[in-house]
Amino acid sequence: MLLTRFHALHKQRGFTLVELAIVMFIVALLLGGMLLPLSAQQDIRARQGTERALDEIRDALTGYAIINGYLPCPAPVNLSTNGAEAARDANGVCPSRVGALPWATLGLGRSDSWEHLYRYSVTPAFSNSGTGTGAKFSTTSTGDITLRTRDSANALQTLAASVPAAVVSHGASAAWAYSTTGTQVADSASINTDEDTNGNDAAGTSFVSRTASPPASPDPGQFDDMVIWLSTNTLVNRLVAAGKL
User: Fold this and answer.
1) For each successive 10 residues of the chain (245 residues), what is the average pLDDT?
2) Is 179 left (phi over 0), alpha (psi -120 to 50) or beta?
3) Strand locations in the chain (E)
4) What is 110-129 written as a DSSP string?
5) pTM (2 decimals)?
6) Which is it for strands 226-230 and 165-169: parallel, antiparallel or unpaired?
7) Helix 232-241 and helix 38-68: axis angle, to 10°?
8) Nearest partner of 76 among 106, 108, 99, judged by Cα
9) Residue 60, SS3?
10) Helix (H, G, I), strand (E, B) or coil at 132
11) Domain locations in the chain as residue ranges
């Protein structure tokens, strides 16, 4: 009788093969995470943090437009306004269509996870404040910014057209980015076609958003930029719903 009770108790306290397999699987997952290089873990966290910040930027730009009836001007990259949008002229026109995101005006952090300013470009028709001879955007306004991506053959394809505004984080490589002291980071890549478009196109009307590629990648080269944009339909519909259009 005692021997029978002992065996029953032993069975209750022991692990089954299935339970042992589950434990081993969990241990393997934990060890795999620990084996991931620290730099890779830091980069993943940095990108996730910047993705969240870019979502907040999109919401903040939309909120600004709902309150004011137009989008903000870019801030000067030389930090002369301390992150506030540049002053418009007598007709409500921004002095420049591309520059730094006006983080102080929007009430946001000034830099991405790598301590670089966000690049911001806005279609003039959407940033005019409507004073003087200027006019605010309407339901018939269209943007002049085009977003492109790369297909499986690395050919450029249109991702979004007639965009009112776009914002870029230049990623860890920071090609063409401006630091929080207003100094531009040199482009160290020999081939950097799409990041050149995102950071060195003075017109500010063309941007590329695509899958990341590491340094020394063949043409179109490395890419770790992160890009968001506002669509005309979404922006106009939000202002109509808010009674601003």
Assistant:
1) 50 63 73 62 88 97 96 97 96 96 97 97 96 87 97 95 98 95 89 93 95 90 96 94 89
2) beta
3) 98-100, 119-122, 145-150, 156-163, 165-169, 206-208, 226-230
4) SB-TTSBBPEEEE-HHHH--
5) 0.84
6) antiparallel
7) 50
8) 99
9) helix
10) coil
11) 2-33, 50-241
